[in-house]
Amino acid sequence: MLKSKTVIYTSGTFDMFHSNHLKMIKYARGLGDILIVGVSTDELVASYKEPPIVPFEERYAIVESLKYPDIVIPQTTLDHTDIIKKLNIDAFVVGDDWTGKYDYLKNLGIDVFYFPYGHGVSSSELKQRIVNNYQNMKTKIDKHSNPDIIK
Q1: Which helix H or strand E contains 137, and what residues bound it?
Q2: What is the pLDDT of residues 14-33, one digit of tens each?
Q3: Which of 3, 39, 138, 144 has a Cα-to-Cα distance from 60 of 20 to 30 A?
Q4: Do 36 and 74 touch, CB atoms closer than 8 A?
Q5: Global pTM?
Q6: Residue 14 is part of a domain; what is its CATH number?
Q7: How far is 92 from 17, CA to CA, in rounded Å?
Q8: E strand or H helix that includes residue 77
Q9: Which domain, by its residues, includes 71?
């Protein structure tokens, strides 16, 4: 019965969930019959970049509440070989900021799609915008001098 179903896997950090995350998940949904979404754990993300702003449990709950995924799972490694084999994945979708990184899956017979985010929102851009806005606001309202507390 399940042999005729196409299983799609996509994964990401999904920090500060935004419209490009949703577009990629929706795109992945359209490629097959069953969509599995992996949400990277805090530990995994911290192994290759700054830790996420939003904790894993909250990011997981956000993705799980979407109408597109059939199954949401924790992602604990960037090597998807085991998950591809265990869950009989037919295709993998990831943002194009990872272009080339998952080409090794093609050797396992998996179709790999690098979703083009294009211009627009990214979690990194959102974080930088928040920092910039905070600094601008602070500069405008914080006009008093700070006392020298180190003597």
Answers
A1: helix 123-141
A2: 998 988 999 999 999 999 99
A3: 3
A4: no
A5: 0.82
A6: 3.40.50.620
A7: 20
A8: none
A9: 2-140
